Amino acid sequence: MKKVDWKRFFGILGLVVYGIFVLFPIYWTINTSFKEVGDVYKVPPSFIPTKFTLEAYKFILQGTGRLALSNSLVVAIGATLIAVFLGTMASYAYSRYPFTGLTNEGAQFNLLTVRMFPPIAFLLPIFWLWKTLGLLDTHFALIVTYSAFNLPLAVWLLKGFMDSLPRSIEEASYVDGYSFWQTARRVVLPLIGSGLAATVALCWIFIWNEFIIAYLLGGTDVILYTAYLPALRRGMRIMWNQIAALSVLAIIPSVIILVLFRKYLIKIYLR
Amino acid sequence: MARVFLEKVRKVFDNKVVAVDGLTLEVPDRGLVSLLGPSGCGKTTTMRIIAGLESPTSGRVYFDGQDVTEVPPEKRDVAMVFQFPVIYPGMSVYENIAFPLVARKMAKEEIKKRVEEVAEIFEITDLLSKRTYALDAGMKQKVVLARTFVRRPKVYLLDEPLTAVDPKTRMELRTILKRLQSDLGQTMIYVTHDQSESLTLADKIAVMNEGRLLQYGSPEEVYSNPNNTFVGYFVGNPGMNFINCSLAIENNVCILDAQDFRHFLPEISPSFAREIGQRSLIVGIRPENVEVSFTPRENWITSQCILSEPIGSRVVLHLKVGEKVIKAKVPRVEVEPGASIWFHLPIEFLKFFDGETQEAVKA
Ligand SMILES: Nc1ncnc2c1ncn2[C@@H]1O[C@H](COP(=O)(O)OP(=O)(O)OP(=O)(O)O)[C@@H](O)[C@H]1O
Ligand SMILES: [Mg+2]
Prior knowledge:
The structure holds 2 protein chains of 2 kinds.
Chain A: H1 6-33, H2 37-40, H3 55-62, H4 64-96, H5 104-113, H6 120-133, H7 139-163, H8 167-175, H9 180-191, H10 193-208, H11 212-217, H12 225-228, E1 233-234, E2 237-238, H13 240-270
Antiparallel strand pairs in A: 1-2
Helix pairs in contact in A: 1-13, 3-4, 3-13, 4-7, 4-10, 7-10, 8-9, 10-13
Chain B: E1 4-13, E2 17-27, E3 32-36, H1 43-51, E4 58-63, E5 66-67, E6 78-81, H2 93-103, H3 108-121, H4 137-149, E7 155-159, H5 167-184, E8 188-192, H6 195-201, E9 204-209, E10 212-217, H7 219-224, H8 229-234, E11 241-250, E12 253-257, E13 262-264, H9 270-276, E14 281-285, E15 291-293, E16 301-311, E17 314-321, E18 324-331, E19 340-344, E20 351-354
Parallel strand pairs in B: 3-8, 3-9, 6-7, 7-8
Antiparallel strand pairs in B: 1-2, 1-4, 4-5, 9-10, 11-12, 11-14, 12-13, 14-20, 15-19, 16-17, 16-19, 17-18
Helix pairs in contact in B: 2-3, 2-4, 3-4
The complex binds adenosine-5'-triphosphate and magnesium ion.
Adenosine-5'-triphosphate binds next to β2 and α1 of chain B.
């Protein structure tokens, strides 16, 4: 009789259980999104739609749903780019230059304190700030707020990559005839490329899935999809099929980014 | 090509570490000057100041009479080999070597031609298309040197270019560098802490210690007329013998009194001896200039051989007289430890140094 490799057996069993645990909600969301709303409330629930319909998708893509998704795209892309751009510059400074009156660790710690409080603690003052400026419910306010909240994360992640880059490489490039900015573009950026990709992916996920800021600072003129989800009800009835359809659509950009950047994301964990 | 002139350059790190202390040095156009000194004496710092990577705390740097102290490195037109070789990761060997030419917006064909030429010289033509991470230290250093010599800058700065490689590659590269220097006839500053490298390669040697320039001259000068005991000790393999002594005069003949032995110096005039002999002295002599005999000789000093240490085709005998040990470098011989040996210090090779200041006493 062949000897059973128990270690391998339980390893695979564990992964299967974990896979079901992770994938089932996604499967259930997709399943729900193709049902009629009456079908959703049926007991026992059916594992495939009894009547396959694109009703929910039609509703989302024709109405406010499409607007919410495109608002979310604009805000998330804008805020991610700004956070990563400023984060790149700031992390270089953190990595290379001493701070006056403050250790580098101290300066970095200050930056991270923003992320130690629950966002709701900051949001009321920020709400009043934008309201006073008359910018509440604008793309601008949302983009600025999101980039500010994610900048510490970007700096923190990118600084690690900057630190691992020996300074002598830049010095060699200066001596070889490249200015500071040329060196940044031709030597430094290509070498922290994977760090940039990973940072983009993580910032994107945080911004794209965020609810409270979207709900408080937006919601009327500029509604993001996360703020629109709870609005999907008719009278007392929650339109689960429409919520599921919007969720399925909302997963798509994140999936694309994660698939494209997954090999860089792994590097963060391996570091 | 350029003449490099450092004027009273001083560099202090963090307000306390004096890395370079009032260094004034002129490197002639097309000259090969070697900076020689022990670890931490400020050689690398000096090179970085010339390259513009470090700005001096005080003092000026001139290229061809032009003050370049404030000019950033990318505008100085120097090529530098760093002490720890820098390869641009993520670029192929070809791209690495071509990198400085690309900065100068040279035409593609011209770049290709030059890269291939220099790759030929360093025998790395078959590596050109390779990635760099798999290269060993010797290969990496060849790539770095190729990237340096692919262009014709005002000055080449080589910071211990052969320290990081294995002995075989070192010999190979030393030959190539020597040939390149004589073919190109370019200004070159070569840092090393290996005195034999200095003596074989350089036109002029600048010996440094603790941030200061101790002596600057041709290899012969530095070797045979050290300015002070440090230079005598540092240059040569092994370095000079130093013996604390005083000069005495007996019967109008000058005698070197080293306590453990006395040595007649009839050639030294008593008046000179009177002049310098009042203070404590150090006499120095190179091991290769100590004469030895295996049979007794009149007026030679008797000693015991405690160690014989082969160096290349020669052997260094450690000769014990009383408390003192004198080294003598002689052609290969078999010597039993403990054997009696007679030695003699020829007057023409004796150098006198002041016991206090360690500076040479000029006759
Ligand atoms: N960036 C720095 N900050 C503080 N001290 C420094 C710095 N660079 C060099 N030093 C100090 O300056 C002195 C001279 O250093 P340098 O690297 O020039 O010596 P070196 O002659 O090149 O030595 P080696 O043979 O070990 O390379 C040393 O004491 C060193 O510790
Ligand atoms: Mg050094």
